[in-house]
Amino acid sequence: MEIEPITLSTPRPVRRPTLVQRWDELTFLHWPVEPEHVAPLLPAGTRPDTLDGVTYVGLVPFLMRGVGFGPGPGLPYLGTFCETNVRLYSVDGQGRRGVVFRSLDAARLLPVLVGRLTVRLPYRWSTMRLRRERDVITYSCGPRRRRAARGRTSRAVVRIAGAIAEPTRLERFLTARWGLHVAWHGRTVHLPNDHAPWPLHRAELLDLDDDLIATAGLPPMTGPPVSVLYSPGVAVRFGTPHRVSITQPRNASARKEGPHRC
Predict the structure, then answer these.
(1) What's the mean pLDDT when you consider all of the chain?
(2) Sign of CA dihedral 83, 169, 100, 94
(3) β-strand 81-92 against 201-210: which pairing, if any?
(4) What is the pLDDT of residue 147?
(5) How many CA atoms lie within 13 A of 237 on its CB side?
(6) Contact (Cβ atoms closer than 8 angstroms) between residue 80 and residue 65
């Protein structure tokens, strides 16, 4: 099987979008992890996508804007909210690279319900806030109910630095992802997406207190992230899901502006 190359633009342009949205004010935090530690967490028919034998765990807080079905336009209020996701990196038997979400915390109840019921994504309704003061962004996430507080909080503070003219090989691997893999009604599907190349900036992690990665069933990330990136955002279009052929055991490893209240 030949794995598709890592490209700054999608190799599968979306002609007829089924879903539109914007991802704004993103921070990408990433830690390396051995593929065998995350392989059991991926959907059937996929395996960890690796770079030089290593795969990665991502913690990505951001502001979602204007979610809408079809070609749009998106919804200005119900479709705009803060979100934080914990994600892994996958490749399927057709060579398509993707993202697998282990958890998605979002601050708007309706998109949480729609995401869980239609795409079967592990959304949770949470209290979230994004606050930006000049070049410093603070993301916070917590449960709606106090009794659920344990293991459901996250706070990250990041300072934005200079724009990246040419992303490194690792930065391309972590951000140039043109679809997601998800278990859907007893099968695995690949849902493609399309957007302009990421405008990326270097960033510095000033503070992190996170429980979301551990509660997503992942090994504890004991050291600092090996990659910290920021992006002002992109407009995104999702296409039609395609079924993933299950041709091997699922556990196989890969080869070689002020506060925003959400």
Answers:
(1) 90
(2) positive
(3) unpaired
(4) 58
(5) 19
(6) yes
Return d(Cα 237, Cα 186) in angstroms, integer: 25
pLDDT confidence band for 103 (50 / 70 / 90): very high
Spatial separation of the C-alpha atoms in residues 46 and 220, rounded to whole Å: 23
Place of tokens 């915390």: 105
For the chain, first and last CA: distance in Å? Answer: 43
Amino acid in position 154: S
Which H or E run includes 171? helix 169-175
On whether the CB atoms of residues 48 and 102 are closer than 8 A, the answer is: no
- Chain CA centroid to CA 213, Å: 13
Query: Would you state the structure tokens that stand for residue 68, as one six-digit string?
Result: 């809408």
What pLDDT does 200 receive?
98
Rounded to two decimals, what is the model's pTM?
A: 0.91
Instruction: Assess contact for 128 and 82: CB atoms under 8 A.
Output: yes
* Integer Cα distance of 217 and 31 in angstroms: 15
Reduced to 3 states (helix: H, G, I; strand: E, B; else coil), residue 116 is: helix
Contact (Cβ atoms closer than 8 angstroms) between residue 205 and residue 158: yes
Closest CA to 229 of 140, 163, 155: 163
CA dist., res. 121 & res. 112, Å (int): 9
Q: How far apart are CA 233 and CA 235, in angstroms?
A: 7
Residue 186 DSSP class: T
Q: How many residues does the chain have?
A: 262
In whole angstroms, what is the distance from residue 10 CA to residue 141 CA?
Answer: 31
